[in-house]
Design brief:
This protein has two domains: about 70 residues; about 230 residues, Orthogonal Bundle (MetI-like fold). The chain contains 14 helices and two strands. With about 325 residues, it is mainly alpha-helical. It has a two-stranded antiparallel sheet. α11 packs antiparallel against α14.
């Protein structure tokens, strides 16, 4: 039997290291290709940063464009229109600046509309916020049927202004109206509700509260859900009664929701148009002709779009001022 062939150690070592050199050369070539195809770290990080900045803008751009097209552009265009005047017969337009507003504030119709609007807003906000807070507190303390109560409360807000005006117009109808029948049963006689200016404004305030307070109620109700019960327990241990807890705990805790509810009631009353137009038409006389009705009269009856735009700007400024006022008057819990 022959012995297996023997190799010298140096020959084996040389063959082994020659294979290693080939493998290293192949790996070096591959790494070189990867280096050529892979960008530097600073370039890739710059691309990642730019992409992270562009992606949020791309997502919110459609919404911004929609808001600009629906809200901002008409507002800016209305402010621009209010600074000009036009002759409807010749079509000639010229710049008048603030003289448009000076003439507007000197007009008796505008002064009356501004006064009636402030009365409507004051009545709607003062009565509506009490109704909203009371309803929200009742809903908050009702243990069962929360969803049903929220649905029932929200129904008036879901009804269109035309339907609301029709319903309440039928209730206060001089013949066959429920309010008229109730007045006759109480011995007050037949009341012509929409013939008395003060009574007509009171009815408009009542309808505005009924129409706009449900959403304010839900806003305040959501704020009540966030108030910790531990605050009331600590206050009761210190001897505080219900009124003190409501004043020093509830109101400061729901101040943002309280302000938002007042802002919503104010906006609804100031911008109320369809309900008043269909119920009273601004009458009797001009007792319910608010700024929104005056804007409609100027724009479509007198064809004075520039004066109507000035009324729109006044409405916008008053709404902003009242919003800031509502936010500032309420103390917040720190």
């Amino acid at each position: 039997m022959r012995d297996p062939p023997r190799y010298r150690f140096d020959e084996f070592n040389e063959a082994k290291w020659s294979d290693v050199r080939v493998i290293r050369a192949q790996n070096a070539g591959r790494n070189q290709k990867k280096k050529r195809s892979t960008p530097p770290r600073n370039v890739s990080s710059a691309r990642a940063i730019s992409r992270s900045r562009i992606e949020p803008v791309a997502f919110i751009a459609p919404g911004i464009l929609l808001v600009f097209a629906v809200m901002l552009y008409p507002t800016i265009h209305g402010v621009w229109m209010s600074l000009f005047d036009t002759n409807i017969f010749t079509g000639q337009t010229w710049f008048v600046g603030i003289n448009q507003y000076v003439t507007l504030f000197q007009d008796a119709n505008f002064q009356n509309a501004l006064r009636q609007s402030l009365v409507l807003v004051f009545g709607t906000v003062s009565v509506g916020i009490v109704v909203s807070v009371t309803t929200a507190l009742v809903m908050h303390h009702v243990p069962k049927g929360g969803r049903i109560w929220r649905t029932v409360v929200l129904i008036p807000w879901l009804i269109s202004g035309i339907a609301i005006a029709s319903i309440w117009r039928a209730i206060f109808a001089p013949t066959g109206g429920y309010a008229t029948s109730l007045a006759m049963r109480l011995g007050l006689g037949r009341i012509t509700w929409f013939a008395n200016p003060a009574l007509t404004m009171a009815i408009i305030i009542l309808v505005s509260v009924w129409a706009f307070s449900p959403f304010a109620t839900l806003i305040i109700y959501s704020g009540l859900k966030t108030v910790s019960q531990e605050l009331y327990e600590s206050a009761s241990l210190d001897g505080a009664n219900g009124v003190q807890c409501f004043r020093y705990i509830t109101i400061p805790s729901i101040a943002p929701q309280f302000s938002l509810g007042m802002i919503f009631l104010s906006f609804g009353a100031f911008n109320s148009f369809d309900i008043i137009l269909l119920m009273t038409g601004g009458g009797p006389g001009r007792s319910t002709q608010v700024l929104a009705i005056l804007l409609y009269r100027l724009g479509f009856d007198r064809l004075d779009s520039h004066a109507a735009a000035a009324v729109m700007v006044v409405l916008l400024v008053i709404n902003l001022v009242l919003s800031i006022f509502y936010i500032k008057i309420l103390p917040s819990r720190d």
